[in-house]
Amino acid sequence: MHENLVILAGGASSRMKKEAVLDNLSPEEIAQANERSKGLIGVGSSGRPLMDYLLWNAKKAGYKNIYIIIGEQGNLFKEFYGNEMKNNNFHGLNISFAVQYIPEGRIKPFGTADALFQAVEQYPELNSQFYSVCNSDNLYSAEALRALRETESPNAFISYDRDAMDFPLERISRFAIAKLDANNQLLDILEKPTEEDLEQYKDAEGKIRVSMNAFKFNGKTLYVHLKNCPVHPERDEKELPTVLLNSVKENPNTTIGIPFSEHVPDLTAKEDIADVKTYLAKYYPDLNWNSKN
């Protein structure tokens, strides 16, 4: 088992910043959505950010060392989770920050694979260890995060049952789907699947499986694929699923899809804020950092 969790929080949040006319958000919530990184939007009790709840679940899952990848303008994270770049103590979690710098000639960050590559360059100890990676704007359960810690597979991802996701069908249909063999080893990831593709990609249980960017990696074998990740031809970004598939091609049967059937709250756009607030009020009514985990 490992104790390292890397949280991706350096993205541009462009979909969250799009204009939206909503009568269920306050002016303050709209302002936060336009100005803050998604994981810092105050959706919880007393206006605490979504990241609090992710860190809560990470601590319950047994993680000790948290590396938050922030953008060049990400200083607000330090106001919540520690003023120093390294080794801040947040309720028993050791929190450090890595910065995803935007390359010269670009306006936006260069994608999730670039974010992770910059992080392991800043914290090279990760390249000789195992670590998990997840998004800052998704609330993964403690059980899912614990499964990543406890799996004996060198690499892994949480393989979610698509039908258990509580999202509109149109949104779910855009999710990339994973192809697994009979032993749940990853074979392929398909973007923009058609109805015909879905039948071919069902797993041994007859389920369509999707990734929500919750991974476990072997830092030693992943590094070369992070460093050499090609740019996605359509999105012009370097992306973690590409890195994962390149690793699988070179090291077959080293990446298991851990099956889970549960919803993963997500803050992608302003329309998600009210839903996430309702979810937190129902399932996390009293977030008490001082209670025993």
UniProtKB/TrEMBL annotation:
InterPro entries: GlmU-like (IPR050065), NTP_transferase_dom (IPR005835), Nucleotide-diphossugar_trans (IPR029044). Residues 34-239 form the Nucleotidyl transferase domain. Keywords: Nucleotidyltransferase, Transferase. Pfam families: NTP_transferase. This is Sugar phosphate nucleotidyltransferase. It comes from Flavobacterium chungangensis.
